[in-house]
Amino acid sequence: MNDLQEQKETTLSFEKIKKDILRPMQNHKGLELWIAFLITVISVCAWAYYVQLRDGLGVTGMRDYVSWGLYIANFVFFVAVSLVGMLISSILGLLRIDWITPISRIAEIIAVAFVAVAGLVIIMDMGRPDRVVNVLIHGRFQSPILWDITVVTTYLTISLLLLILPMIPDLAICKNELKKASPLLKKLYNILSFGYINTPGQYKHLHKMIRTLMVLIVPVGLAIHTVTSWLFAATLRNGWDTTIFGPYFVAGAFVAGSAGLIVAMYFFRVSYKLKDYITDVQFDNMGKLMVAVCLVYLYFNLNEFLVPGYKMKTGDDVHLTELFAGHWAIMFWSSQLLGNVIPIMLLVTKKFRKPFPIMIISLFILAGAWIKRYVIVIPTLLHPHLPIQNVPQNFVHYYPSAIEISVTVLSFALALLIITVLSKIFPVVPICEIAEQKGIEVKIEA
Amino acid sequence: MKNAIKIIASLFLLFVFTASVVNAQKWQAPVLSKKKQNPYEASTRNISSGKKIYNINCKSCHGDATMGNMLPLQPVAPSDLGSQAFLIQTDGEIYYKVNKGNGAMPTFEKTLSDEDKWMVITYLRSFDQNKKESKKIVEVKNPEVTDVKLLLDINNENKRILANLTGVTAKGDRVALQGIELSVKVKRNFGYLDISGDDAYTNEKGEVNVQFPEDLPGDREGHVNLLVKVTDDAYYGEVIVDRIASLGIPTNPVNPLDERAMWGTRANAPIWIIFSYVGGVICIWGVIFLVLFQLIQLPKLAKNKE
Fold first, then answer.
1. DSSP strand E in A109-187: where?
2. Which of A36, A211, A280, B190 is deepest in the core (most CB within 10 A)?
């Protein structure tokens, strides 16, 4: 591996790095097609949301029992994936782990896109989205909802800054190199590069800011997912009323986030032809990281299900038997096995950590992570402590309606669109950091 | 002649056949369920609590036991649950049917507790002439009366409530009504507390004497809302009196919303939680603004160096 890197050091020049990384931003037919496709999907599904807005939440499958349905499962999933930004670029960055350099920006892009959409999902789950400001006007300090709104917006802000700040030198390059960019984009590069010309003073100043934010995002990142878990754990419902929900969610988020990152890495590597930057080394190490976070998550799962399953106290018993052997068994076990246990077993072997196999495995992990959120949110709601009497039969079950599914597709498409657009206008691999790491001198003209 | 016999015979067979078919369609409880026995004894207390449960849950369709005033539902009307024809069934059979329901008859598997169901059965069984242990609760025959009055006499000293039930006979005399069950209730936060006791049937003077519980809290002045009624509306229609009496223990109720607490309004949030929230927001956003402030100084640094 070391030989490989040394080899590259000699073949890569600053000019070549610039060319390789900036090329897909200027000229990439497939990307434009993909954007057009996403916009079509979004416009079609926006109609479903319009129907929901017009007719109210009655068009969803949510009723008195299940009042948090598909949307909240999506919300938890989006928040989970977005945590990868904090894991990769901040925790590993602060530990000065160098193989993350080429993928840290992708992680940050994912973080921004997913946390932004997570916030939108909450608004889309509201029958009267115009009342969202009431949370701020009348929100109670005692309510996790207020903390959640606060922490989601804070995380979004810091993630955006952590995306932009380390990109300032690259944006200065974009400003100089991308002569054919649209005037609007040029203006954007001009503003966001903050007159950076890589003087030692600027360099020191910039890195101090970045390090501050990297430290700051650790508690905020932990808070965002812990508070999301408290939305559940602060109630007495069976399946939610547990003390480990905070760390359990954070561990789960690292799994989902890493899987999301691996999938994105693969597609950028192939579609942007970045084989020289996002190398097998990155996939191999991400695979090892994945095994580590999956093991932690597995450990939490053992605690979360084995201990209550051993006691089977009243209320929990119905919930757990439904999960283990009842209506939810297939979803539950597939998320545990396909989304956690089997990936661990596969990823300990080096050949499964090659880009293609690990991307496929990550898709399974992502699907498992989503299903897991679904079986965390819905089954609990089906067993209220105080049974609701004399309700129509359809209140006692929950099946997402076509509208809900379309709005879900909308939110996923939206997240992908944000990622795509960001990667179209910004270099997805940090040019200057790569050059620095390889000991190549960075030159930015004023 | 022979033909006539044949015709009569075949008509008879047809009749027996159809009767058996119709019979087979009647609602039958499984054999095993018949063996189940009522674990509760036929005490006056159980019978009267069964009656109350019956009045709330069953009467709307089945009418008053033995009175045959059921709701004429289609296709199968509910039976008179006090009739001898119904009561030939075992306790187990009745229990099964109440649990399962059939057609318009709802299931009470979840909506009534086992105890409640057995109480209702105990009550119904009290109409069974063939059961030795059955006690006739209403044995006394009261004269036909009009203008039924329920009077309350409350003794604050020893906390006793004396209710008196009278009516005016055809001759114009006001007479006591005997053997009628009264319900004495106190209004609490969620519904009424029944304090009638074991034996709330009027005596020969038409009286029921009830002891108000020693430890029941009232409002600041000890006021409680009393409600006394003839349990069964079937006799004289709704006969009911309510009264505010100072029989309760005076209490100084605290409004849980007045104190700072997790369940309070925003203005009454615990201080520590306001501090943590506001403090956290100020710290984190303080740093963010600091970074933003440093960010706008970045262009200046470029000039400084040159």
1. none
2. A280
Strand, helix or coil at B187?
strand
Nearest CA in chain A to B278: A141
Expressed as residue numbers, the domain containing B44 is: 27-125
Least Cα separation, residue B125 to chain A (angstroms): 29
Tokens of A325: 């052997």
Distances (CA, A) of A385 to A237, A238, A309, A313: 7, 8, 19, 13
pLDDT (tens digit per residue) in B83-140: 988 998 999 999 999 988 888 888 888 888 888 999 999 999 988 888 755 455 555 6
**Which residues in B have their CB inside 8 Å of a CB on A?**
110-111, 262-266, 269-270, 273-274, 277, 281, 284-285, 287-288, 290-292, 294-299, 301-302, 304-306
Q: Name B223's Cβ contacts closer than 8 Å, sequence gap at least 6.
A: B244, B245, B246, B248
Identify any residues that bridge with B192 across adjacent strands, giving them in sequence order.
B187
| pLDDT tens digits along A58-94 | 999 998 889 999 999 999 999 999 999 899 989 999 9
Q: Are residues B114 and B189 both part of a single domain?
A: no
* Beta carbons of A141 and B266 less than 8 Å apart: yes
CA triplet A119, A121, A125: central angle to 5 degrees?
120
Q: What CA–CA distance (Å, rounded) separates A38 from A44?
A: 10
Q: How far apart are CA A380 and CA A373, in angstroms?
A: 12
B53 and B114: one domain?
A: yes
pLDDT computed for residue B75 by the predictor: 85
For residue A70, is it within any domain?
yes
Q: Do A140 and B281 touch (CB under 8 A)?
A: no
The CATH number covering residue B51 comes to 1.10.760.10
Q: Among candidates A240, A220, A239, A393, which has minimal Cα distance to A320?
A: A239
In a domain, residue A392? The reply is no
Q: How far apart are CA B8 and CA B129, in angstroms?
A: 39
Task: Give a yes or no: residue A393 inside a domain.
Answer: no
Tokens in use for B252?
Answer: 């100084």
Q: Which CATH number does the domain housing residue B160 bear?
A: 2.60.40
- Residues of chain B contacting A139 with CB distance shorter than 8 Å: 266
Ramachandran quadrant class, A353 (left: phi over 0; alpha: psi -120 to 50; beta: rest): alpha
B284, B296, B301 member nearest A202 (Cβ): B301
Q: Is residue B214 part of a domain?
A: yes
Query: How many domains does chain B contain in total?
Result: 2
**Distance in Å, alpha carbon of A211 to nearest chain B alpha carbon:** 10
Residue A305's domain is classified under what CATH number?
1.20.1630.10
Shared-domain flag, residues B197 and B167: yes
CB of B152 closer than 8 Å to CB of B163: yes
What pTM did the predictor assign? 0.72
Six-digit token pair at A123?
Answer: 């608004």
User: What distance in Å separates residue A122's CA from the closest CA in chain B?
Assistant: 21
pLDDT for the residue numbered B46: 86
Q: Using CA atoms, how far apart are residues A218 and A155, in angstroms rounded to an integer?
A: 10
Q: With beta carbons under 8 A apart, name residues in chain A contacting B305.
A: 199-202
- Determine, for residues A140 and B265 on separate chains, whether the beta-carbon distance falls below 8 Å: yes
Are both B32 and B105 inside the same structural domain? yes
Residues of A in contact with B266 (CB under 8 A): 138-142
